[in-house]
Write a structure and sequence with these properties.
Length: about 160
Amino acid sequence: MTNALTVQSVLEKAIQKEIEAQELYRNLSRTAIDEAARDMFRELSKAEKKHEELLRKYLGGELGEGALKRDQILDYRIAEHLKQPPIKSDMKLSEVLLLAANREKASHELYLALARVHPPGRVKTLLEELASQELEHKQKMEYMYTEVAFPQTAGG
């Protein structure tokens, strides 16, 4: 059996994932020791908020051209992109960064999948831009991971 989802249900799940990402990055910005990391997490939280707002506009029918009907059935197994392991309170920073990178990867794939089913136009372009931004977020998480998991030693 395949997963049949409507545009509305996908957008609602995507909005929820954007909210979760905002919370994750806000919390990381509060706990990070490095000021540059705190700034990066604050910026990522703001970017995820903008994604949430754009998705809410889509859900509310405010984007117009190229938007799919909210009740249109989509069947390309997006749910696989949305499943994530639970966040545990005792996770190491490196684990949190890997989790965040995987969440950004899933968001990237979600937006690419949504863009593929849209006709050319404003909404397709918006979804492709969101996918690109999520990929940038993933790259930042991976960079931070390498800094935490493989710290530079005094010898080089």
